[in-house]
């Protein structure tokens, strides 16, 4: 089954790397370099919602937590999973992601692209609620 995947990261090299991996497997990929770009796309009346958003935390302007807070507050991307994909591995960041009901948390430096790919597909296909409770 093909999925729609949104990649949100200001690191162009990593975005291109992951985009190629997902597209080669037959998935549709949307690429955004900031939280503002993501939110603008999700707020469009005719927006096609992704199955999953892979969201970096550290970006210029609205970072990942700001984007995730807006998604939750404005009820954007209903039915979409959100996976934090970042190099920020502090316990406080992981706890904040849980409070914002992120569906997953992957530390980029600890995961090769094939692991990110596998974790993303597993998260999409998972029927369990995010860590921290139901939405």
UniProtKB/TrEMBL annotation:
Domain of life: Bacteria
Keyword Transmembrane helix: no
Keyword Phosphoprotein: yes
GO biological process, alphabetically ordered: phosphorelay signal transduction system
Residues recorded as bearing 4-aspartylphosphate in the entry: 56
Signal peptide per UniProt: none
Keywords, ordered alphabetically: Phosphoprotein
Domain Response regulatory: 4-123
Protein known as: Response regulatory domain-containing protein
Organism: Candidatus Kaiserbacteria bacterium RIFCSPLOWO2_01_FULL_55_19
